[in-house]
Amino acid sequence: MAFASHSHRDPSGNYVFSSRPRVVESRSGREPPSERTQRHYVNIMYDPRVVRGNTYAQHIIPIPPQPDLAEIQRQQAIRKRAIARKRALEQQRLRLRTPEPLQGRKHIDVQTDLYLEELSTVIVAADTECQTDEFLDRPATPLFIPAKSGKDAETQIEEGELFDFDVEVQPILEVLVGKTLEQSLLEVMEEEELACLKAQQRAFLELRNNELAEVQRLQEQERRRTEEKKHRIAQQREVLKQEREVAEKITARVYCQQYLAGLLPAVFSSLRDRGYFYDPVERDIEMNFLPRLMAKVHNNLEKSNTCRELLDTLINEVTQQRLEVKYLETESDS
Fold first, then answer.
1. What is the DSSP secondary-structure string of 43-96?
2. Residue 79 lies in a domain
3. Domain residues for 328?
4. What is the pLDDT of residue 2?
5. What is the pTM of this model?
6. 9, 3, 2: which is closest to 60 by C-alpha?
7. Count of Cβ atoms closer than 10 Å to residue 26 Cβ
8. What are the helix (H) ranges across the chain?
9. Which helix H or strand E contains 15, and what residues bound it?
């Protein structure tokens, strides 16, 4: 099947359709004779599909008049707005769409408001009042009997003409009994199957519990082995650490002994030369006796110096007084 359509170039140079495609009439040789006889043939010179002029020249397709650019932009803007509106509606529909119900269930409308209201058509009503007389005794409403229509007809049916209970009830009874037995057998088989399933489930649960207990026991055993391994490794590391410390201590002690073997005599001799090792009697004399002796001597010297200074002062004063008296006498004689 072939399609035919008209097209033209847009400003960007691309082909766009200006009409909807349509089906081209079939030209196969298998068309019925009636359609071949009804086709109208025309002169080939007037056929628009035949090219006029030089067939060797390049055939140029006539370009239709270009549409207005503003109109094209307006149509594109309208198309974009329509597409955006359609996309927004689809997104809103997808966003507000309720997920499909589960198998065996269905959706129902449920009110989520605080106060439930009856969903019904609201009818606008208005209240009016009027004054009426007091109620009077109302007679009983007569029984409604619809008007009779049609014609009455009757026929005589003899006994046994329409229904024989013994003959007609036998297949119904067979069906009922058969269905009852079949349903009973199905129920018994279902009960046996449920019992087997429960037994299998109990056996599976027992096996699963045993396997879980065995897994827990193996996990606990592995945990104990891991802890014991870690403890043994830590203990061995501690033993190695202690052995290394003991070896380092022994090495340090031997090195100290070797280093101090010649150091101790030199130190003692140096200390003895510097006076750290002294004679207690000499030390007592130097520290206790000689300082007290020197202090007493110093006190005695200070006392003698004081007495000498006092004597010198008295002599100086007496000499000054005598010189003054002699000077006064000399002045008086002159």
1. -GGG-TTSPPS-SSSPPPPPPPPPPPHHHHHHHHHHHHHHHHHHHHHHHHHHHH
2. no
3. 279-333
4. 46
5. 0.24
6. 9
7. 11
8. 33-38, 69-96, 165-261, 263-274, 280-284, 290-333
9. strand 15-17
